Amino acid sequence: MEHRIGIRLLFGALLLSTCLAVTGSGQQKRGFVFDTGMVTLGPNQILRISGDGVDQDDAITLRFRRIQYSQGPCNAGVCKHSISLQITSPPTTLTQGETATIDIPNNSFGVRAAMLSNSQDVRVTAQIVDQTTGAIVAIWVPQGSPVVSKE
Predict the structure, then answer these.
(1) Residue 19's CB: how many other CB atoms inside 10 A?
(2) Domains in the chain, please, with CATH?
(3) Rounded to an integer, what distance in angstroms lies between the CA atom of residue 97 and that of residue 112?
(4) What CA–CA distance (Å, rounded) separates 56 from 44?
């Protein structure tokens, strides 16, 4: 079962947007979005996404988006899904040495997490966590996400 979930996460990671530059209409400031895509969780699992500023001197601002999907009709093995819930958190400002996370419970057919940031230097990690044991079932660090140096 864990193997199947790991494969799903790996497959999903291949299809995911890792770092998309977005600009608002009429705004000069650039923002960045990290998105897990839709993930189907097993029993007692949560999707956790976290971000921090990689010990940069400037404060960064993060917002988290939580999306839940319901399953729609299937035809020849292809199923449609529709958004049943979408919530965006208020902005959270992080200074050096701080991090922020959001946990998305398994209470729908599929879930998705996105993190919006004002900095491209934000470090992002997505995990599937077993709530019963606390074990990390799968972990994903998007390509291009800064890594911690080994000192």
Answers:
(1) 16
(2) 2-140 (2.60.120)
(3) 26
(4) 35
